[in-house]
Amino acid sequence: MLKYSKRTIFIYLVLNFLTLRLAAQSLPMTMDDCMAYAVEHSTLVGKRANALDNARHEYNSSVASLFPSISANVAGASNFGRSIDPETNSYTNVSTFSNSYGITGSMPLFAGLQGVNTVRAAKVARERGAHELQITRDEVAMQTMKAYIDVLYYIGTTEIAAQQLEDSRLLLKEVEKLYEIGRKSAADVAEVKSQEANYDYLLIEQQNNLTLAKIRLRELMNYPQDEELVIVEDIKAEFVNMLTPIDEVVEYALNYNDKIVSAELNTSYYRHNYNRVRGNFYPSLYLYGGYNTSYFVNMENQAAYDSFLNQFRNNIGSYVQLGLSIPIFSGLNRRTSSKMARNAWRDAELDYAEVRNAVESEVTQSYQQMKAYAKQYVLGQKKLEAAQLAYEGISAKFEKGLVTAIDLQTASTTLLQAKSDCLRSRLQYIIEYRMVEYYKGGMLVNGQQTTDNRP
């Protein structure tokens, strides 16, 4: 039986892991993979997560502020020359040493409900932070989805342009042969050469657009620009009739979309903040308490004083105190702060109304565009078939000399535009369909954590 050393087994496992990791990295990424990668590596998402963590700490701090605050103190002093003897309360000219110990505490009994409203505002801010984090995730996913679709579009247009260029080159060879036997004129050859040059230029342009689209996709994903990003180029699109009426989609979005909930929580936050500021107009009542003791000794006659432990016990004192503060006048600071807090609350209410209108408009547009692109794709398929047949018919007539090269170029341009339009409507439908599903409550990124506002 073969025996392997621990080192050999470790090296084998490491090589196995690296092989599997490289194999996984070489797999083409789907649109969902790219969106998940972008959300995971987004700096904006990371900053928003930090902001949420800060909001959680602020909430914990506001809750803790309702409890008593306790502090301890220790002090020591050596006096040389004239000082007061605490035993006789008379002046002395000898060197002495003293120290004191104490514990003090305070607790607000009533402060215009400022503490309670601070806790409420902090709790709302924490919930708002969770929804804002989800909004940022969704926005990063949306931008990545659109960038991914742009890459697919330019991949398609590049392939179309390459195919058109190849067809024009084959046509040029045929025209040159017909020119040699006298069936085509020099003008026809020149026209076809011009068409070939146009398609060559179009191919270079689409290749450049594709390169820029890939750079943009890597940028949104926070993917290294010096590494090749391999994506799945075939994406399925099921052109189905949306069974959910638009009114239900809009109603769901207006109730559960994270933008709506965040704006509503923002209004609640400023309302609690306004109530907190209003608390400055009310009296505040505080409870104070303390416990202290001390020790004193004459350095030149230490035996005349009790020991440290005896003095520590005998000098113990404590106190309980109530403090009432009544605001009378503070240079209009409280009034100004109250007015500004009230205006901030009103601004939040206006922002909430604005967000509702914006979301309603977004949902309606996405729903309408989804239906429009589905129809455009169906009609585009028919248009493409007709353009293909027309091009083939005019190409056959051109070979027989029945039409000019200009007619052939017009038919070729029409076919190229039909292919591009069909590709564009198909890819745009995918975007709008995913957006409508998102507004219905679906997640943009499969398996992504979301907030708890959706039933």
Give the fraction of residues assigned to helices. Answer: 55-70%
Overall body shape: elongated
Give the DSSP E fraction (strand runs of 2 or more residues): 5-15%
Distance N terminus to C terminus?
A: 60 Å
In CATH, the architecture of the largest domain is: Up-down Bundle
**Overall pLDDT metric:** 85
Order of strands in the sheet with most strands: 1-4-5-6
Look up the CATH topology of the largest domain.
Answer: Outer membrane efflux proteins (OEP)
Spell out the CATH superfamily of the largest domain: Outer membrane efflux proteins (OEP)
Q: Spans of 5+ residues with little confidence (pLDDT < 50)?
A: none
**Using only CA atoms, what is the Rg?**
39 Å
SS field, number of helical segments: 10
Layout of strands and helices, then pairs:
Blueprint: H1 6-26, H2 31-41, H3 43-64, E1 69-79, E2 83-85, E3 90-92, E4 96-110, H4 114-180, H5 186-221, H6 246-256, H7 258-278, E5 284-298, H8 308-314, E6 317-325, H9 333-400, H10 405-439
Antiparallel strand pairs: 1-4, 2-3, 4-5, 5-6
Helix pairs in contact: 2-4, 3-4, 4-5, 4-7, 4-10, 6-7, 6-9, 7-9, 9-10
